[in-house]
Amino acid sequence: MLFYGPSGAGKKTRIAGTLRELFGAGTEKLKIDQRVFMTPSRRKLDLNIVQSNYHIEITPSDVGIYDRVVIQEILKEIAQTQQVDLGAKQRFKVVVINEADSLTRDAQAALRRTMEKYMANMRIILCSTSTSKLIAPIKSRCLLVRVGAPTDDEMTSVLQYVAKKERFTLSDEVASNIARDADGNTRKAVLMLEAMKMQHPNLSETTMSIQPAKPDWETYCHHVADMIVQEQTPKRVMDVRGKLYELLSHCIPPHVVLKVRDFSIAVRIPVLVIIGAMPETIAERVTDKVDESIKADIVHWAAFYVCPLLFISPASVTGANRMSD
């Protein structure tokens, strides 16, 4: 099976429900192990694995270009072992692969071969945000399940349910504000509710003055966007570059940074150099504050530069930042 959809739409929740339906409540008894894998060049790779007696959950993309090694070893090991629980409803084990769309082509080819060879003892569930990066042979061998982002009304219902379970009252106005700012991400909405509850113990007030809490990194991105709009000088370019290094060195993904809606840049050619290093969060904020004639350029260059940014590691960013200092 292949579950795909935007972040926070509920893919992993549906996967957990599927596993529970197949094997029962035993799938909720999880443990985390750290496995060490050896590459052909004798390099050691550490990877955290979440597993129960009935399934195993891995994120091979965490090891970068060596994901093929993880795919081959884990799947071969699982496929060659029998189900140890004689009372299990199913005789096979399930392997859940997160971020399947981030797998390299070699890893996807290895996955395709394994899917064909070991289906007697193993089933595979893939989880991804998109199917565009997956090779056709994998998609053709999977049942595709699209998980769409929830509506604001659906997220409001979820927030009210959480508030009821935690035994506090949440006003409809506050719930609607959180749902709107969460942008279809239920996980983000619940985290925002938790942060607001810590800041404002009484959320039952029907007042619009209580604004949803935003993550620190998002506020930081908005500040960077405002800096770009306010001034376009060589000094400001260096200041903005330093702040972008700071975001990347704290493991905020580049594509997330450039995606923030409030990113507004009001300059044309000089700012395009800066935008190239900015996450989408920043780019969107900038477009809210600039003239219509340059919005297309901003979006174009943000998309153009976000691809190479995906290959930048936090360590390399930290080193570059020190050199610039």
From TrEMBL:
Spell out the protein name for this chain. Answer: Probable RFC5-DNA replication factor C, 40 KD subunit
Tagged with keyword Hydrolase: no
Q: Name one Pfam family in it.
A: RCF1-5-like_lid
InterPro entries cross-referenced by the UniProt entry: DNA_pol3_clamp-load_cplx_C, DNA_Rep/Repair_Clamp_Loader, P-loop_NTPase
Q: Which CDD domains match?
A: AAA
Q: Which GO terms describe its molecular function?
A: DNA binding; DNA clamp loader activity
GO CC field: Ctf18 RFC-like complex; DNA replication factor C complex; Elg1 RFC-like complex; Rad17 RFC-like complex
- Say which species the protein is native to: Serendipita indica (strain DSM 11827)
Keyword Manganese tagged? no
List UniProt keywords, sorted A-Z: DNA replication
Q: Which SUPFAM superfamilies match?
A: P-loop containing nucleoside triphosphate hydrolases, post-AAA+ oligomerization domain-like
GO biological process terms held by the UniProt record: DNA repair; DNA strand elongation involved in DNA replication
Taxonomically, the superkingdom here is Eukaryota
